[in-house]
Design goal:
The chain is an alpha/beta fold and 167 residues long. The protein has one domain. It is 31% helix and 19% strand. The protein is built from six helices and eight strands; from the N terminus they run βαβαβαβαβββαβα. A hairpin with a 7-residue loop joins strand 6 and strand 7. The termini are close together. The protein binds iron/sulfur cluster. The site of iron/sulfur cluster has 12 residues, from helix 2.
């Protein structure tokens, strides 16, 4: 079976970020995987009904995605609105799609309170960031999906195209 990869929609050039922008990742492997039908694209936040544009949101109190999944942290917008429930729904939608389509890997943009896997912002909206995962990345990883950030695409190429992986 073809190895499938769940991908952040904004990395694929979709203008779905909170600020109405995209952050396309240009790499020959992305083009090839697309042609091979390996890529399954989702914006978790949009899948949970969040609009574009939308207020920026961060995981509160310097905590991280696993804490949100465990019910021990919240996600808040810079307006102060608690959007934890929507972020959990976003993560559940991404996990459901990954399972339906057989994705074993995920390639997600770093820094997002949903998709981040190396770092997230600390909830103060000051630009301060710390090591940690977003809510979607945390739920995927907890369910056995290997999560790679956009900065780790070379490592993902090794896993997907390497000698130990077969179609
Ligand atoms: S939720 Fe993920 S895919 Fe959607 S805009 Fe944020 S980083 Fe991109």
């Amino acid at each position: 079976m073809t190895t499938k990869i769940l991908v952040s929609a904004c990395l694929m050039g979709h203008a779905v970020r909170y600020d109405g922008q995209s952050k396309p990742l240009l790499h020959p492997a992305i083009d090839r995987w697309r042609q091979e039908g390996r890529l399954v694209t989702i914006c978790p936040e949009m899948s949970a009904g969040m609009p574009v544009p939308r207020p920026p949101a961060e995981i509160a109190s310097g905590l991280s995605g696993p804490d949100v999944v465990d019910g021990a942290a919240t996600v808040v917008e810079n307006t102060g609105r608690d959007v934890t429930r929507a972020f959990l729904e976003a993560a559940e939608n991404a996990l459901a799609l990954a399972r339906e389509t057989g994705c074993r890997f995920a390639l997600l943009i770093d820094g997002s309170p949903s998709c981040g896997s190396g770092f997230v912002y600390d909830g103060t909206f000051s630009g301060a960031r710390h090591k940690g995962q977003g809510v979607t990345a945390a739920l995927l990883a907890r369910n056995g999906i290997e999560v790679y950030s956009d900065r780790e695409i070379e490592a993902l190429i090794e896993r997907v195209d390497g000698p130990h992986e077969t179609d």
